Amino acid sequence: MLAGVEEVVRYTYRLRPGATAEAALFGEWGRCRWLWNEAVHQYRTGRKPNFGRLSKLLTEARARSSWLRDGSQVVQQQTLRSYALALQHSFRVRGWGRPRPKRRKDVLPSLEYTTRGFSIRDRRLRLPGGVTIPVVWSRELPSAPTSVRVYQDTLGHWYASFVVRRNTTPAPDAEEAIGVDWGVTTTATTTDPAYDLPHLGHRKRCAAELAKLQRRMARRRRPRGVKPSNGYLRAKRQAAKVAKRAARQNTHNARVWAKKVVDDHATIAVEDFKPTFLARSRMARKAADAAIGAAKRELVDRGLRAGRRVVLVPPAFTTMTCSQCGTRAKHRLGLDIRVFRCDTCGYTACRDRNAARTILATAERDRAGADDVRHAITSFRDGALVRSEPEIPRLPAVGKR
After folding, report:
1. Do residues 92 and 84 touch, judged by C-beta distance below 8 A?
2. Is residue 400 domain-resident?
3. Residue 390: is its pLDDT beyond 60?
4. What is the mean pLDDT of residues 52-60?
């Protein structure tokens, strides 16, 4: 990794707003949510709600409504910009639906501020309208932030996520290569058993406690239209706390594992596995507990930041192909068959280990057109870290198992 190269990252800190500041944040979120829903209405009525048109409509609406003028124009413009980007992304990426209205009960507050809309004075976050919020500075910012996202989580805690630039830390020298195959029994099986990520089952250990709290919520639930009781809200908060604790444990384990893999390997071949279809199967609960998507995202992002060669390999036929001779089996292996045996060369290995070695062999052949390998290329442009992915025709989706 080249020293002195800058990268754009987020630094997140806990906020402790008072009652007045929290009421101001909720009021600002109400205005932004109304603008988002109005932009959705503009699209449904046949108009073209690009950012330029939405900005003109915002100016007209602020001139008519004193309620909108009481809020920050910066955060309102950022809301409309986010909607325009989400709409463009839905057209580019197949399978993404159009932006939907945001209901107050379904969406948590999230506000975006640029440099014109916030400042840091006396180690406090200052927002428009005289809102001052103490920040829990767990670490120092490496540079002046260019933007900040203020949001609330399911527990009611507020956070500030600052976008900053920092110098990259040179990665250790490495020459080894590794292949990664995703699974449910073992979250990540690699070509080297020392780098496997076992299924730790954090959500499973919390399942009994979570079920107890959910039953308590069901007993204390009131009819629709009636204000929920304090006991119901207390049980709901406790259930959210248990669920978030398990999610944080999965995130921490994925970060530690990804750092170990990236530090010791120059080439990382990752199975381009999409775990979404598992949510509609009998393995939905265990797949969610494995957190395959979070581990994969952490490994790819950390590898790109470190300047490693990261290759995404489609999962089609990786389990059916022999990693020694390259022969593909004529029939699919059932999930109950955990040992791969090649009828041509007699090679025998764990099916997941064989798949990991097949993924690595596919990446090392470097034949993107024939094997449909999508390379995630890391380059440096104007002193900044840039990621680009070439357009390569994809094969039809085929199930891995």
Report:
1. no
2. no
3. no
4. 91
